[in-house]
Write a structure and sequence with these properties.
The protein is an alpha/beta fold. Helices cover 28% and strands 26% of the residues. The chain has 11 helices and 18 strands. It starts with a helix and ends in a 16-residue tail after the last helix.
Length: 416
């Protein structure tokens, strides 16, 4: 079924009885050419691009819960291409270009809204840093504007410009940045992959990876053994646990990142605002809720829930930036399991086991990377070679010292 405005009108007139399931509820077969472990945004986009770009249709996506039940549905939905370092810069630039054509590509409304992202500067040093980042973005071919204080005031009059602890000096505007509907991205890729013959298998947890003489042969699951010539591990915060099934120890830790949403309000914030002194970021959803988040909870955990001290920390940052938010009621919070690499940059690479591939270590960049991650992981699995925009995401860079320290924090997870 192809979605269109006419189809919506027609179904509305006839009781909405003609809609069909967006994808099949497939049962596992005994063998596939490739298996993707993980039915989130990255796993589903990998399967989609394997089928679309490389003609591989005998593929299964294995998800232990339901599709989109992990980090793809537990984030603050921000899409941007404002990275600084070579390697990251061209990758996220490629991802943003894919985002801009994604709805037409998938025939699915992922609610991509390029409303712009404004990063605030609170000191001369921060303003200089933003100028360097903006120049790097422009050199990459993306957009960036260094704004004065007056420009920021005109654009966002609701911020607190009178407070003296963190005065606002200006900001960096990335107009092509924006937001998207997180679970719709998963549904769109799932539908597209299913249309190309990919089996999407839910409630199928991988319990082991079969390896013989250094070659992957398939996986063990709660629904039986499944053979495959190629296996991709695309499980975000669970990457260390799944890799351990293959005897691997990845250079990542899993941390909790909380997010929050308020009651629905009239339109007030028509962009993304990032608070340079508090790692606080906020936008407004189409439903009117203010969606915001802050720092990691700063302890390793596989629990998708947070702690109250970090709730207080995030609320303090919100009140510092815009005191008016204190009158809004917080409806709910949630936690995502972040796979934090030791240099703050991701991994898309082959492993030492023939036929086994890994896509992990996304830190804060997982949601915005969904299209390019799937594009590059599919290219790697199909051809055996890294895509040109992901060549620096090597697994062995931590051994050789060719790290990509995007935030300049070194191997200190508490500073990421």
């Amino acid at each position: 079924m192809r979605y269109s405005g006419l189809k919506v009108i027609t179904e509305g007139l006839f009781g909405n009885k003609g809609w069909k399931p967006a994808w099949r509820d497939a049962a596992p077969k005994a063998e596939y050419d490739a298996i993707i472990i993980g039915g989130g945004g990255h796993g589903l986009s990998t399967a989609y691009y394997l089928a679309k770009n490389h003609g591989m249709t005998n593929i299964a996506v294995l998800e232990k819960g339901y599709l989109g039940s992990g980090n793809i549905g537990r984030n603050t939905t921000i899409v941007r291409a404002n990275y600084y370092m070579p390697g990251n810069s061209e990758f996220y630039s490629h991802s943003l270009k894919l985002w801009e054509g994604l709805e037409a590509e998938l025939n699915y409304n992922v609610m991509h809204s390029q409303r712009g992202q404004l990063i605030l500067a609170h000191s001369d040093g921060q303003r200089d840093t933003l100028a360097r980042r903006g120049n790097a973005m422009i050199n990459q071919g993306d957009d960036a504007e260094l704004w004065t204080l007056d420009q920021v005031k005109e654009f966002a009059p609701y911020l607190d410009y009178a407070q003296t602890r963190f005065p606002i000096y200006g900001g960096l505007m990335h107009k092509r940045g924006g937001t998207a509907r997180h679970d719709a991205v998963a549904w769109g890729y799932a539908r597209g992959a299913d249309q190309r013959g990919v089996d999407l298998i839910q409630n199928c947890e991988v319990t082991g990876i079969d390896i013989e003489n250094g070659v992957v042969k398939g996986v063990q699951t709660t629904r039986g053994a499944i053979r495959a010539k190629k296996v991709g591990m695309v499980v975000a915060g669970r990457s260390s646990q799944v890799a351990a099934m293959a005897g691997m120890r990845l250079p990542i830790e899993s941390h909790v990142l909380q997010a929050f949403v308020t009651e629905g309000l009239k339109p007030v914030i028509d962009s993304i605002i990032s608070f340079g002194m508090g790692h606080f970021y906020i936008s407004q959803s189409d439903k009117g809720g203010l969606v915001f988040g802050g720092d990691l909870d700063f302890y390793a955990s596989y629990a998708a829930r947070g702690n109250l001290p970090m709730v207080e920390h995030v609320m303090e940052a919100a009140m510092t930036l815009m005191p008016m938010i204190g009158r809004a009621k917080v409806l709910r919070s949630w936690g995502g399991i972040m796979d934090m690499s030791v240099d703050g940059s991701p991994i898309i690479d082959k492993t030492h086991i023939d036929g086994l591939f890994v896509d992990a270590g996304w830190n804060y960049g997982g949601f915005k990377a969904v299209p390019a991650s799937g594009w590059c992981m599919a290219h790697l699995m199909a051809t055996g070679e890294s895509h040109e925009v992901a060549r620096r995401f090597r697994l062995d860079r931590f051994r050789t010292g060719h790290v990509m320290d995007e935030e300049g924090t070194g191997s200190q997870h508490n500073l990421h």
